[in-house]
Amino acid sequence: MRAGSVERLRAILAARTRRGFDVERDVDTTRGFRPGPVRRAAVLVLIVGSEESPQLLLFERTLEVADHKGEICFPGGSIEDGDVDAVSAALREAREELGIDPSTVAVIGCLDDVHTVSSNYVITPVVGRIETMPVLVPDSSEVARPIVIAVARLSAPDAWPLERIDVAGAMREFEAHRVEGGLIWGATARILRSFLAIWHEAQ
User: How do residues 96-137 score in pLDDT, each as one tens digit?
Assistant: First the structure.
């Protein structure tokens, strides 16, 4: 990361028109939403480390969680009644899942909303920064293992090959990134690709 990249990223996110879903207006089958209740959620895309070697913090979900069992994701979850907005929800979930103190996170901005077809969530990705890796306290009921990935690795030309993945008994192809013992795909991959595109613009 070049010096000042975080501030340029902040300026880009502030200036662009963010694509969001209006749950009341946009939820119908013609827009890709399946019938049934649509839930709002937020995740924290957390940039960790120096401006020279930035990393992102994700984790592998346990098999005990209700949705997306065993998948690799960002800290986050449903926006609850007590949350002021998506930012407060993402920070609360990061504290509950990984023990990250919200006061240590500098919020940079939000990416476009992402819809998960299987679980019918509309996710708002919140981008934040923390200069040094915190001491993580994972919630063992939700977090199988934390995963830290260098932005440079995710930006490599061969980082996102097509992978065949079994989805509800049907084999489908997705752009995905392999990590030791797992695969980043689906909504998390789409959020990452969106982040990387704006990140490279900030360079």
Answer: 999 999 999 999 999 999 988 777 889 999 999 999 999 999
Tokens matching residue 91: 């920070």
The domain ranges of the chain are 5-151
For residue 190, give the 3-state DSSP assignment.
helix
pTM score: 0.89
CA-based end-to-end distance of the chain: 7
Contact assessment for residue 112 and residue 124, using Cβ atoms and an 8 Å cutoff: no
Identity of residue 72: I
Taking the C-alpha atoms of residue 52 and residue 134, their distance in angstroms, rounded to an integer, is 18
β-bridge mates for residue 59, sequence order: 73, 146
Contact 74, 29 (CB under 8 A): no
DSSP of 75-138: SEEEPPTT-SSHHHHHHHHHHHHH---GGG-EEEEE---EEETTTTEEEEEEEEEESS------
Between CA 196 and CA 135 the distance in angstroms is 26
CATH T-level fold of 5-151: Nucleoside Triphosphate Pyrophosphohydrolase (3.90.79)
Q: Which two tokens stand for residue 159?
A: 């980082």
Say if strands 39-48 and 121-130 run parallel, antiparallel, or are unpaired.
parallel
